[in-house]
Specification:
Belongs to the inositol phosphokinase (IPK) family. The protein is α+β, with helices and mostly antiparallel strands. It is 28% helix and 19% strand. The strands form five sheets. Strands 12-11-8-14-15 form a five-stranded antiparallel β-sheet. It has a four-stranded antiparallel β-sheet with strand order 4-5-7-6, covered by helices on one side.
Length: 429
């Protein structure tokens, strides 16, 4: 097995190694002596840490977020000496799908923050109070205390996050108000002395609904999170285990040897294996009206894969797609004139799609990681993200959702639907 390949080694051993740049990665060709055979062989290794002979998780060919490419090379450096291993904490991940992957470590479980639920009846809190169709009240698996049934019909309680509360207070006075759950204030429960946000139950008017959660934006963590994680990176065995369960070839040889990856390395890898970095959104979970559910979308990244998922989600409900397109276009138009949207970096937020036999609707949900932009900073939500510019790619995701749903209409009715695929700010219409 090759040892770690440092830039200094590449330069100092020119007689034995050569390098070339291929697809944005440095490929090192190294001559190795084969013990017992008395001869040399050439071994190629990419400087992003992968062997050319393996099939590592590739970077997307076209990214709406070049910031990932900026981070890739530096994050593949394993801390040296690799003496310290870190442990999981409640604020590890902005994205929720990691909670689906079992944590093999025997450590005492900690509160899981704002992660989604382990199955679809649980992953959206609106199902928690969906009693009209006899859905039972189910405590969130691993999320006890984060959600409760609302004290009034048609409401839910979500554990108060100060950042999210500020967002809802702003949104109730903004033009986006019709597109988010109504905020009815906060409540402190006497039994637990815990404070909750009281929100509208978005499923209250639906009968046996189909529900889909799409995480919007080209990244689901704040730049500050990644910068903080890079300050003193430690190897994480739990994140290594999660990585190899999804793609055994994703870790480098050194990471396999040490059975650990750093948190920032994992965070960037996680975003680039889905459609987040390329299309500005990803599917988090889908629940059908027959009760079947799935969150197996971690590596769903191509347009074709997403189109098939949307087709399956809306099958048997021909009215749903046109209504989704109409609602998404209304959301986009409202975002472009919204004071809230102009002044905030929207990270980790989702669009919740809901339909039944008669109705279909879409709402913006989840604002725990949405922050007010500094006074001197402006973003347009449609530019590519590079490190430091704080672009979230929200409009990239919305436009691509409109485009893919429009393509779905075209494929089922043979009608021509204009496309609005967005990968750069000048494409935002």
């Amino acid at each position: 097995m090759l040892g770690r390949c440092y830039p200094s080694e590449v330069e100092s051993n020119k007689s034995y190694q050569k390098k070339n740049v291929e697809n944005g990665r440095i490929k090192v060709h190294r001559k190795e002596y084969v013990s017992g055979k008395g001869k040399f062989r050439m071994r190629s290794r990419c400087y992003d840490g992968s062997d050319a002979s393996r099939s590592p998780s590739p970077l997307p060919t076209k990214m709406a977020a070049p910031g990932y490419e900026q981070y890739q090379k530096s994050l593949l450096e394993v801390p040296w000496p690799p003496a310290e291993y870190g442990e999981a904490s409640s604020d590890d991940l902005s994205s929720e799908w990691d909670s689906d992957v079992p944590d093999p470590s025997p450590s005492i479980p900690k509160p899981s923050g704002w992660r989604k639920l382990r199955n679809i009846v649980q992953w959206t809190p609106f199902f928690q109070t969906y009693k009209k169709q006899r859905y039972p009240w189910v405590q969130l698996a691993g999320h006890q205390g984060n959600f409760k049934a609302g004290p009034e019909p048609g409401t839910i309680l979500k554990k108060l996050c100060p950042k999210e509360q500020l967002c809802f207070q702003f949104l109730m006075k903004d033009v986006l108000r019709p597109y988010v759950p109504e905020y009815k204030g906060h409540i402190t429960c006497e039994d637990s002395e815990t404070t909750y946000l009281q929100l509208q139950d978005l499923l209250g008017e639906f009968i046996n609904p189909c529900v889909m959660d799409c995480k919007i934006g080209v990244r689901t963590y704040l730049e500050e999170e990644l910068a903080k994680a890079k300050e003193k990176p430690k190897l994480r065995k739990d994140m290594y285990e999660k990585m190899i369960q999804i793609d055994p070839n994703a870790p480098t040889d050194e990471e396999h040897k040490l059975k650990g990856v750093t948190k920032p390395r994992y965070m960037v890898w996680r975003e680039t294996i889905s459609s987040t970095a390329t299309l500005g959104f990803r599917i988090e979970g889908i629940k059908k009206s027959d009760g079947k559910s799935s969150k197996d979308f971690k590596t769903t990244k191509t347009r074709t894969q997403i189109l098939e998922s949307f087709k399956d989600f809306t099958e048997g409900f021909p009215h749903a797609v046109p209504k989704y397109i109409q609602r998404l276009k209304a959301i986009k138009a409202t975002l472009e004139v919204s004071d809230f949207f102009t002044t905030h970096e929207v990270i980790g937020s989702s669009l919740l799609f809901v339909h039944d036999q008669n109705n279909a609707n879409v709402w913006l949900i989840d604002f725990a990681k949405t922050l007010v932009l500094p006074n001197e900073m402006q973003i347009d939500h449609g530019s590519s993200w590079v490190v430091g510019n704080h672009e979230d790619g929200y409009l990239i995701g919305v436009n691509n959702l409109i485009d893919i749903f429009s393509e779905l209409v075209s494929s089922t009715t043979n009608q021509t639907v204009p496309t609005t695929l967005v990968t750069a700010p000048q494409d935002v219409t």
